[in-house]
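Look over this today:
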Amino acid sequence: MKTNVAIIGAGPAGLTAAYLLSKNNVEVTVLEADPVYVGGISRTATYKGFHFDIGGHRFFSKSKAVEDFWMEILPNDMLDRPRSSRIFYGGKFFAYPLKAFEALTKLGVFKSILCVLSWLKARLFPVKNPNNFEDWVSNQFGKRLFNTFFKSYTEKVWGMSCKEISADWAAQRIKGLSLGSAIKNALFPQRQPKDKTKVIKTLINCFKYPRKGPGMMWEACAAKTKAMGGQIEMGSKVTGCVYDEKSETWQLRYQDQQGNVQTIEAEHVISSAPMRELARGLTPPMSARAKQAADGLKYRDFLTVMLILKERKIFDDNWIYIHDPSVQVGRIQNFRSWSPEMVPDPDKACYGLEYFCFEHDGLWDSSDADLIELAKKELLQIGLAQEGDVVDGCVVRQKKAYPVYDDDYAQHVATIREEIEERYPNLHLIGRNGMHKYNNQDHAMMTAMLCVENILADTRLYDLWQVNGDAEYHEAGEAAVEETQGTALRHVPTRVTATPELASEQT
């Protein structure tokens, strides 16, 4: 079988690329390992009529191009939803973003004063050139607030000390937010500015959301891609990518749903697969140095315990961050608060308890029954349910949910990227795992959009690596304003240079 473009992975990045290429009459085949769901980590799982996310996905972007894409795919199914989230710490719930007087009351006057003094000290005597998460956040919030509201949760997410986590991750996920901006927002709430590029994403107060979860978006995108002639092969796991340097074409081997080995030839390959696995599967093989870099890339895995329970209207947040170290759960979703249509029974609630782990550690390898019992126990301990409330549940495991930002990741990625660009010119990396960049789905989509522009132009108009965590594209020259506002991407006729700026929400 032949195709112009083969795409590995049917997540937000892969399907965005497939849809836009198909719309431009380019022959496309998408190979997706999952036999059932498209959407990757942005899929919506179902259980007995209940719908639930794998992580929770707010549809908000600073890019008009991304928001226009969402509305083109689901013009009549996007709800406007209020943003509501809290932090659970020390047996108490704190609004997030911070409400100054509530925090003052719950922390106590003495501790609150110490937190403010700690922040002032950090502003006067910051750690110079912070290179780890602890130092970066302490500079922004002070050491006391770091220890109170960041340390425990972050170490749950990553399974490592905050001093081992690169400052890059903090800069990308919580850029633009400091104690000062949080207190200002709490005391003097501002309307959302018309210019979305000026919004601190951590402080947004509303967002769009598909009626039946994010998977609805990507199922519709897949259907529209197929209607235009694009092929989407489900249950197709890519096992190798062979590049012919003479013809500059690719042959991809994959195993189909029946276990048969198939091949597909392509002029271009777009990969949203984990960078580590892609690098291991290339032929001709990458250099020993690049292979070593690939082996050094790490991932954090994730599982959701979905519980169906009696509706007692105990909380209406989208999610609650569990910073308390006395329980293992890291975050709790309330799916009715994302969309009432996620929960078919008005007398039932549907919660998702999220546990961060490594594949094949004790938590990951626990039985579903044991995980459901753990989730029930911790939900009671936190005070979000009563004995006998839980009536059913299920477990979903997600491999490689988060690319790890340790001390060496940036050098590893640079080594692999350099060799791919030099030796495999028509191999394009996009998306979270494809680029080993911890980003949101709007950022992943923008990398796909610009990748499509490069393929259509048959030249490298855009450097995808300069798309930042807010799905913006910062470039030199007059086109910069036009691009970050998301107007027609095709209007930039020459190759651009860009300066990265990382931003987004800590999730």
In short: Confidence is low (pLDDT under 50) at residues 199-203, 474-507. The domain at 299-403 is CATH 3.90.660.20 (Polyamine Oxidase; Chain A, domain 2). The radius of gyration is 23 Å. The CA atoms of residues 102 and 335 lie 26 Å apart.
